[in-house]
Specification:
globular, six-stranded antiparallel beta sheet, mainly beta, about 10% helix
Length: about 150
């Protein structure tokens, strides 16, 4: 009886653990009627779970507006990115090493207020550092100190 109980408990615990998942791709549109940040930028929000030590890689692409990406941690810190590179205003990317596991929020928004249009969001949680990634991650900032993170 004890062995069966231990086996069931182990199964429940492993089901609750955050396992790495393959890349998830979402398509969406920023538009009138969406929630907005305090600066007037439209926003869509996605959620994911990750465990301590894992990596989160998020890519946002749009040819309709200048994409701006925010990854909010369970303790309300955030990493942000406007352009993945200086010459690519249609692509934003955040790569984050998880220091404290839990529920994360991805905020898809635009660089300027009122920008709208279609986008593609791809995100992935992995145990291994993504290939070609510098060893440093974006520094988190307090959500309540950034105009893009207020009032949500």
């Amino acid at each position: 009886m004890m062995t069966r109980l231990a086996f069931l408990l182990a199964g429940l615990l492993s089901a609750c653990a955050s396992a790495p998942e393959g890349p998830v791709t979402e398509t969406g549109e920023l538009a009138t009627g969406d929630l907005t940040l305090t600066g007037g930028e439209f926003q869509d929000t996605y959620s994911l779970r990750a465990s301590e030590g894992q990596w989160i890689k998020v890519d946002l692409r749009s040819s309709a507006f200048d994409p701006y990406l925010i990854l909010r941690t369970p303790d309300e810190q955030q990493s942000e990115n406007d352009d993945a590179s200086e010459d690519d205003t249609e692509h934003s990317q955040v790569i984050y090493r998880v220091e404290r596991g839990g529920q994360f929020q991805i905020l898809v928004t635009s660089y300027s207020a009122g920008e709208s249009g279609a986008y593609t969001l791809t995100y992935e949680v992995t145990d291994a550092q993504p290939a070609g990634v510098p060893s440093l991650r974006a520094a988190p900032t307090a959500a309540d100190g950034d105009s893009r993170g207020e009032g949500m």
